[in-house]
Amino acid sequence: MRKTLIPLALLAVPATAQEAPSPQRMRADVQKMVSFGTRHSASTTTDPKRGIGAARNWVEAEFKAIGKACGGCLRTERIARSFTGPRAPTGVEIADVLAIQPGTEPNRVVIIMGHLDSRNSDVMDAAGEAPGANDDASGVALAIESARLLSKSKHRATIVYAALSGEEQGLWGATLLAETAKQRGWIVDAVLNNDIVGNTVGQDGRRVADRVRVFSEGIRQVETIEEAKKRRGDGGEDDGPSRALAKAIDATAKAMPGALDVFAVRRPDRFGRGGDHEAFLRLGYPAVRFTVGVENYDQQHQNLRTENGRVYGDTIDKMNFDYAAKVTAINVAVARRLADAPSAPTGVSVDGALGVDSAVKWAAVPGTTGYRIHWRRNDAQDWTDHADVGADATSFTAKGVIVDDYFFGVSALAGGAESIVTFAGRAAPTR
Questions:
Q1: Which CATH superfamily is domain 23-340 in?
Q2: Based on CB atoms within 10 Å of each CB, which residue in 113, 218, 246, 397 is the most buried?
Q3: What are the boundaries of each domain within the chain?
Q4: Cis link prior to 136 (omega < 30° from 0)?
Q5: Beta pairing partners, 404
Q6: Mapping DSSP to helix (H, G, I), strand (E, B) and coil, where does residue 55 land?
Q7: What's the pLDDT tens digit per position in 271-295?
Q8: What is the C-alpha to C-alpha distance for residues 333 and 15, in angstroms, rounded to an integer?
């Protein structure tokens, strides 16, 4: 069967038609966050110039200014709750600063986020200097810059830009936002977590400025044993919602002139480590983490010092803002694509055992203009072939494509945008 090529318009709005992220604005934003001295979650909330309270106030003011510039398209909000744990034994008030850009389908949500809090070598030190330039003022600057750019147009889905607290204490701000999403009944299509997205020189001096790592889970954390057994039988270990999101990010970046290469890491996070997107994975939401192509551990969670000629500390002079702007551009393109597209189809299944044709079915998606049926050989990681059908279709038969040898998935199309792909599992047990 002849391979069909995917039009670039269905993967991302051409970069030339959109304003690019500004390295200069992002530098200024990071510099401002660094100026608060420390943004430890237990630091002062009353000092107007220092601590997490002053930082939250500044981020909220930035979001409000962006909202004013777009005629009130953003609504700022704070959500807060007290948390207690080993890194805050007496409890601490965790507050997230949100800017919400309602879409025409307001209950469907795409989230772009980074964590505002910082720390030094001692996670319990709430007063000492902790500039947190790359970890993670870079992610918050990315969220702010994304809001500046995406607020210039209207979208189908709601976009939430979030500056979280409490990441260093136990992913508490992310837990608060994920649970808030569930309480409000949000349909979360994607969570783009950006944590350490602004350096290009690694621990051993190597420079990696041409790629960004995107981490994603394959088998879902929330799956039951029976669901995991079914996915194993279907062969869908590499196609859970978060992995599908990572593949969509990769495809979107490939369609952008001059974009960074997306290194889609098939692991939920760095080896033995974690991040804020995990709080969303625990509730079953598609979520990924963006992180630089190479890390410098002397510039993470360190007191500012020089020892034996080695300079320690997470300071702004170690950052590369041209690189950070390129990571931002990918976030913006992905968020635009998904916020302008319908939700991913549900109820996607495939049948064809003991035959030479494969029959794919799915549930109708409101507001779609069509569907794209994807398939690939079982030894391939990425979709290689596809066929498009109209909005009234809820089934498709791939003639001569044997289900034993191919995987299938379906995405929804509308207005030049494409949802993530939903993997097709078995419609019913087959012997």
A1: Zn peptidases (3.40.630.10)
A2: 113
A3: 23-340, 346-426
A4: yes
A5: none
A6: helix
A7: 999 999 999 999 999 999 999 999 9
A8: 8
**Beta-carbon contacts of residue 343 (< 8 Å; ≥ 6 apart):** 108, 187, 189, 365, 412, 419
Q: Name the residue type at position 194.
A: N
- The residues facing 215 across adjacent strands are 265, 289
CA distances for 318 relative to 151, 172, 296, 315, angstroms: 30, 28, 10, 6
Structure tokens at 58: 């500044």
Residue appearing with tokens 């300071």:
315
Domain 346-426: CATH superfamily, name plus number = Immunoglobulins (2.60.40.10)
Question: Strand pairing of 105-115 and 187-194?
Answer: parallel
- pLDDT tier, 17 (very low <50, low <70, confident <90, very high otherwise): low
- Please state, in angstroms and rounded to a whole number, the distance separating the CA atoms of residues 41 and 114: 14
Exposed/middle/buried for 224, CB within 10 Å: 0-12, 13-18, 19+?
exposed
Nearest to 349 by CA among 365, 370, 363: 363
How many CB atoms are located within 10 Å of the residue 429 CB?
7
Name the more confident of 196 and 11. Answer: 196
Distance CA 214, CA 210 (A): 13
Q: Residues 187-192: what's their mean pLDDT?
A: 98
Please tell me what DSSP assigns to residue 133.
I
